[in-house]
Design brief:
The protein is α/β, with parallel strands linked by helices. Helix content is 22%, strand content 29%. It contains four helices and nine strands; from the N terminus they run βαβαβββαββββα. The protein has helices spanning 17-34, 50-57, 110-120, 179-182, and strands at residues 10-15, 40-46, 66-72, 85-88, 98-106, 126-134, 147-151, 157-158, 174-177. The strands form two sheets. It has a six-stranded mixed β-sheet, sandwiched between helices. Helix 1 (17-34) packs across helix 2. The chain is globular, with a radius of gyration of 16 Å. The two termini are 23 Å apart. The structure holds inosinic acid and magnesium ion (MG).
């Protein structure tokens, strides 16, 4: 669905499907160049990063393995709890791999800083982060993110993989959820 289909549930469209597509192509070109000749592994963070991973990885000009990690820090609310739990671990040994973590959004940064620390102990050759969205004003910890799609205001957003209580992931655009939906 597009934002226009659920207009009354949104207050603002922040990033359109077309803007996302252009940005993914641009970042994929950078990643292809930066990782040429290297043993790259894409690690997606479930479930929010599914759309980013699907579209981003297909812009890469070479075959690249992907693995998935499921963590939770949110429950059904709209604020990060800071408590990270592994729901599904990687299937891949990170030893000597150049890992690129693919994330939907960096909000407080708590999830990613926890993941980075966790991965650091697994012997990867390098670990970098690509986040489609980032909320600079929500940061509680600084996360070194090499590739960022869009910096957005500190609002709860949905779409393109991002959910509210498991809804709205299939929205093609990224939009601010109207407060009446969750209050
Ligand atoms: P953190 O606060 O950076 O730890 O964010 C952790 C996770 O919360 C992200 O990977 C998202 O899955 C989710 N999240 C953060 N902000 C939003 C939002 O605005 N909408 C939907 N999910 C969000
Ligand atoms: Mg996520």
């Amino acid at each position: 669905m597009r934002a226009a289909d659920i207009q009354s549930e949104l207050t603002e469209i922040l990033v359109t499907e077309e803007e996302i597509a252009a940005k993914l192509e641009e970042i994929a070109a950078r990643v292809a160049e930066d990782y040429a000749g290297k043993d790259l592994l894409l690690v997606g963070v479930l479930k929010g990063a599914v759309m980013v991973m699907a579209d981003f990885s297909r812009h890469l000009p070479a075959s690249v393995p992907m693995d998935w990690m499921a963590v939770s820090s949110y429950g059904a609310g709209t604020k990060s709890s800071g408590v990270v739990q592994i729901r599904k671990d990687l299937d891949t040994d990170l030893h000597d791999k150049h890992v690129l973590i693919v994330e939907d959004i960096i909000d407080s940064g708590l999830t990613l800083s926890w993941l980075l620390e966790n991965f650091a102990s697994r012997g990867a050759a390098s670990i970098e982060v690509f986040a489609l969205l980032r909320k600079p004003d929500a940061a509680k910890v600084q996360v070194d993110c090499k590739y960022v799609g869009f910096d957005i205001p500190n609002e709860f957003v949905i779409g393109y993989g991002l959910d509210y209580a498991e809804q709205y992931r299939n929205l093609r655009d990224v939009a601010i959820l109207a407060p009446h939906v969750y209050s």
